[in-house]
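Following up on my earlier thread - several people asked me to post the actual chain instead of describing it. Fair enough. Here it is, all 306 residues.
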Amino acid sequence: MATSAVRQKFIDIGANLTDPMFQGIYNGSKKHVEDLHEVIKRAIANGVGKIIVTGGSLEDSKASLELAKTNDVLYTTVGCHPTRCKEFDESGEPESYLQQLKMLVLQNKEKVVAVGECGLDYDRQQFCPKEIQQRYFEHQFDIAESTCLPMFLHCRNSASDLVTILKRNRERFSTAVVHSFDGSKEEAREFLDLGLYIGINGCSLKTSENVDVVASLPSERIMIETDSPWCEIRPSHASSKHVKTVFQSKKKEKFQSGFLVKNRNEPSNIIQVLEVIAAVRNQDVEELATVIFENTMHVFFQSCWS
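Reply from S.P.:
Thanks for posting it. Predicted structure:
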């Protein structure tokens, strides 16, 4: 098992640790024993000091919060993902759904560090039409405004509308990170001009164009994440040649304790994201790790109620 040479503490700003894959379940089929405890232990051993578990709906946020309460390194977001915003109407009481999200935040200040995952996703409108996404994304600024928390934003093929809504509500939230960013330099600049941060993971580093965008970002506005169990850096990615730290893995059907599961991303892999960013920017990896760590602490762990 590889061990990160960088001893600076990492913060993974986005990990879907409530996903069934960490219970050994893939597409409804049990392939191996639950190993989330191993995943968290491995992350800590490789320098990950904090992990923000992503909440994507009312029920998912409740589950993420309960998980966060089990370990001192875990925190969570609370919000509704754009592809799940139909839940507001399906609940029969959209205002009640919003208030329940808000109360979940207010009653758990020690563990909730951001409002989200919320935003817009125009690639998957089969799950929720964009008009509904826009309506209930805008509603969630109410939570950010009343709690002073930053926002954890989702943006897929929707940057123009997302920027418009953010501008309209800019006085209602402190700041935000656009996570899993895969947009253009121009789109990044619009978010940066609003005082926002950019979250980078393997999905942000697929193509040479993606890599060029990441190389152009100001280091004081970068955060890193895994988006586990998704968005790993794959051999086919333009960025893969810059990865130095490789962990041993086994196929899920041949699960073995102490090994990563092949093609299932996890927080310990965050070192690879850092290595790529440092390489394409020609920056010292330790120095960049420190800047990114400080960015993340400033935004998520120094809120107005901490």
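The domain at 10-300 is CATH 3.20.20.140 (TIM Barrel). That should answer part of your original question.
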